[in-house]
Design goal:
Strand content: 15-25%
Strand order of the largest sheet: 1-4-3-2-5-6
Order of helices and strands: EHEHEHEHHHEHEHHHEEE
Number of domains: 2
Number of strands: 9
Structural class: alpha/beta
Mean pLDDT: 97
Largest sheet: 6 strands, parallel
Helix content: 25-40%
CATH architecture of the largest domain: 3-Layer(aba) Sandwich
CATH topology of the largest domain: Rossmann fold
CATH superfamily of the largest domain: HUPs
Length: 277
């Protein structure tokens, strides 16, 4: 497995992969890798292109009160996992490479970036869109792979690629879960044992709400019951909403493409999840 820490190394190695495989797939990550990330690598492998993973903890997508300094980092462990799962190249830029002092451009996003995570984390999707655009320009992949756990992020990046006519496909990969339903996340490691036992209730609550909504119930009472159930269990609920999948616009009833999205704080850990209805 190759590594690159400079743009020059990256371009050389990407050219080698493109010559060898005919196409390149990118798995963008912030490190602290788990089986959810490995599912993205496996999806890239299934497309038979060269596999590039990036590891960069992006400061632009963290708010002033968020956990940038606390975000877990384990470069050696991440590299070992990627090598074991068949990754061909890892891109490891530093902040100065990604955001040189003379930079004057960021990407403002609307549409699916509005509401939900967009309201809860002002500026977050500007940071996501900007770093993804930079990574796409640096690696120039044919495909980029994102996990559906961050559903709204996938829609924001997909919209950006379409709007800017960028020459790549965004591939969404289904959420990977623990046996009890908890969606895999790098932040799960911060859950104390007691909270870890409670955390799967988020998935179970969404599953129950999805069944009720699929039977034709109106969204408002179902969502209110879900919020109350989570609150009773100790979650501080940010939102539980029924939305149109691609646009994230709220829905009053289920229609094709509907999605349940949710975010809630359990102790000091913010959990997000979603599922199709």
């Amino acid at each position: 497995m190759l590594t690159a820490r400079t743009i020059e190394e990256l371009r050389t190695h990407c050219a080698t992969l493109r010559t060898r495989f005919g196409s390149v797939g990118l798995v963008p990550t912030m490190g602290a890798l788990h089986e959810g990330h490995m599912a993205l690598v496996w999806a890239a492998a299934a497309d038979r292109g060269g596999i590039v993973a990036s590891i960069f903890v992006n400061p632009l997508q963290f708010g002033p009160a968020e956990d940038l300094a606390r975000y877990p980092r384990d470069e050696a462990g991440d590299l070992a996992q990627l090598a074991a799962h068949g990754c061909h190249l890892v891109w490891l830029p530093n902040v100065a490479t990604m955001y040189p002092p003379e930079d004057a451009t960021t990407i403002d996003v609307a549409g699916p970036a509005l509401r939900w995570e967009g309201d809860a984390r002002p500026g977050h999707f500007r940071g996501v869109a900007t770093v993804c655009a930079k990574l796409f320009g640096q690696v120039r992949p044919d495909r980029a792979y994102f996990g559906e756990k961050d559903w709204q992020q996938v829609q924001v990046v997909t919209r950006m690629v379409a709007d800017l006519r960028l020459p790549l496909a965004i591939v969404a990969v289904p959420t990977v879960r623990e046996d009890d339903g908890l969606a895999l996340s790098s932040r799960n490691r911060f859950l104390p044992a007691a909270d870890r036992q409670v955390a799967p209730l988020l998935f179970r609550t969404l599953s129950l709400a999805a069944r009720r909504l699929a039977l034709g119930e109106a969204a408002d009472p179902v969502l209110e019951a879900a919020r109350a159930s989570l609150g009773d269990a100790g979650f501080v609920v940010d939102y539980v909403a029924l939305v149109d999948g691609p646009t994230l616009a709220p829905l009053a009833r289920v229609r094709p493409g509907a999605r349940l999205v949710a975010a809630a704080l359990l102790g000091s850990v913010r959990l997000i999840d979603n599922m199709a209805v």
